[in-house]
């Protein structure tokens, strides 16, 4: 409490809170916008105000990973972008497997937000023979039975699950057996994985519930 | 630290951390699964273990909103479901407007996860006259110019933005002008709103970045 300068934690020393990792992604987005708009440097105050955080929050979050600012200058945008990408692991390219070629899977194949951040869907899979064969959005499509071979051949470590809820756990199990290390699950169901596999669930109704909570608990609204 | 029984906070007394609200949605999902599987009661230990949280975390989260357990019984599932829905505001039905009828918008029209939680998309909008007119997945579609009239007529308070990044802020502004209180934004760009409007951004690449962070920082992986 009395300390204002904490020793910097290295990643090996302790876990970084998940919320800090999420905010790194937000800082990265704003830094990319700033560079696109011609800015060479920025400050914790500017970054914070763009995102609705305090400058202290920005400094504290970045301090988990090292010292990035320069006295009298602030942060050099492209340098900080490179550092944040290195921390997030997105300084390399990550081929991603997508399973499920229904409406959602097809939408994700065309989602610009992935490409913008260096993720490319390298292969897409479905159990329906009618849905696979021709490339969609330039992504080759395969029957799910070819999963292990394609994942190994393309050295894929990340996968997106966009299948119906009833099939999600089985698909996750097959992905893990094929050597996938991280799964983003869009099926509206909880999927479990061994502790050495990272699982992130995207339940879009949860996001809507956060909205309804905010709306019903906002004093000015009924 | 020494206290084990904290006074319960009412919603009016202080802000509930966002992470707690997110976990409420997860508890709700697990409670719904438990009821579907024929369970009448549960415990903080069971709920926690289903989600990978400690029982203390579950009790602490629920304690923000009141006392829900019974000595020697635990939680009555349907009673706790009703309470959590009331807290989240999903004990009522929320008609939702969707703007953008590209791949993502069409996928969201068919997303089961919304219907499962009582959200129904009541109207969908696009600026392209070719995309509107016939209902899609039983949802009526309209030109964006009809937004204000339809939102008022159907008493819609929540909206989903699934338009290209360049159009997202303008669409949000039009939604807010039409009386929308909460916006779920899927466009890969930061959209700002006045403080009395709740804005939740869904940046799907952020979720993937959380995965890459976990994968690169897991000691057992290279």
Fold and architecture overview:
The structure is a homodimer of 222-residue chains. The first copy, chain A, has 2 domains: 18-87, Arc Repressor Mutant, subunit A (Orthogonal Bundle); 94-206, NAD(P)-binding Rossmann-like Domain (Rossmann fold, 3-Layer(aba) Sandwich). Chain A is 42% helix and 15% strand. Chain A has helices at residues 18-36, 44-51, 55-63, 77-88, 103-109, 112-116, 147-153, 165-177, 204-216, and strands at residues 41-42, 75-76, 94-99, 119-126, 141-143, 158-161, 182-185, 198-201. Chain A has a 6-stranded parallel β-sheet with strand order 5-4-3-6-7-8. A two-stranded antiparallel ribbon of chain A has the order 1-2. In chain A, α1 (18-36) runs antiparallel to α4 (77-88) and α2 crosses α3 (55-63). The relative contact order of chain A is 0.09. Chains A and B meet through α1, α5, α6, β7 and α9 of A and α1, α5, α6, β7 and α9 of B.
List the helices and strands and how they pair.
2 copies of one chain form a homodimer.
Chain A: H1 18-36, E1 41-42, H2 44-51, H3 55-63, E2 75-76, H4 77-88, E3 94-99, H5 103-109, H6 112-116, E4 119-126, E5 141-143, H7 147-153, E6 158-161, H8 165-177, E7 182-185, E8 198-201, H9 204-216
Overall mean pLDDT of chain A stands at 88
Number of strand elements of chain A: 8
Tally of helical runs of chain A: 9
Largest sheet of chain A, in brief, is: 6 strands, parallel
Structural class determined from secondary elements of chain A: alpha/beta
Radius of gyration of chain A: 20 Å
**At the fourth CATH level, what is the homologous superfamily of the largest domain in chain A?**
NAD(P)-binding Rossmann-like Domain
Helix residue percentage of chain A: 40-55%
Largest interface: A-B, 70 and 70 residues
CATH fold-level assignment of the largest domain in chain A: Rossmann fold
Instruction: State the end-to-end CA separation of chain A.
Output: 40 Å
Order of helices and strands of chain A: HEHHEHEHHEEHEHEEH
Task: Name the strands of the widest sheet of chain A in spatial order.
Answer: 5-4-3-6-7-8
Strand fraction band of chain A? 5-15%
Q: Tell the overall outline of chain A.
A: globular
Q: Give start-end ranges of low-pLDDT stretches of chain A.
A: 1-13
CATH class of the largest domain in chain A: Alpha Beta
- Oligomeric state: homodimer
């Amino acid at each position: 409490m009395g300390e204002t300068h904490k020793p910097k934690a290295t990643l090996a020393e302790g876990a970084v809170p998940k919320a800090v990792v999420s905010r790194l992604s937000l800082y990265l987005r704003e830094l990319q916008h700033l560079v696109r708009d011609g800015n060479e440097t920025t400050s914790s105050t500017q970054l914070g105000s763009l995102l609705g955080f305090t400058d202290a929050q920005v400094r504290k979050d970045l301090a988990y990973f090292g010292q990035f600012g320069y006295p009298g200058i602030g942060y050099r945008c492209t340098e900080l972008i490179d550092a944040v990408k290195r921390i997030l692991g997105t300084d390399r390219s990550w081929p991603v497997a997508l399973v499920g070629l229904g409406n959602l899977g097809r939408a994700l194949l065309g989602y610009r937000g992935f490409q913008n951040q260096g993720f490319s869907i390298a292969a897409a899979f479905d159990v329906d023979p009618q849905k696979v064969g021709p490339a969609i959005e330039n992504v080759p499509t395969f029957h799910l039975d070819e999963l292990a071979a394609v994942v190994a051949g393309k050295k894929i470590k990340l996968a997106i699950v966009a299948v119906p809820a009833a099939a999600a756990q089985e698909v996750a199990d097959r992905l893990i057996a094929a050597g996938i290390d991280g799964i983003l699950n869009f099926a509206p169901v909880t999927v479990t994985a061994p502790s050495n596999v990272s699982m992130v669930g995207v339940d879009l109704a949860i996001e809507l519930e956060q909205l309804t909570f905010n709306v019903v608990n906002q004093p000015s609204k009924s």
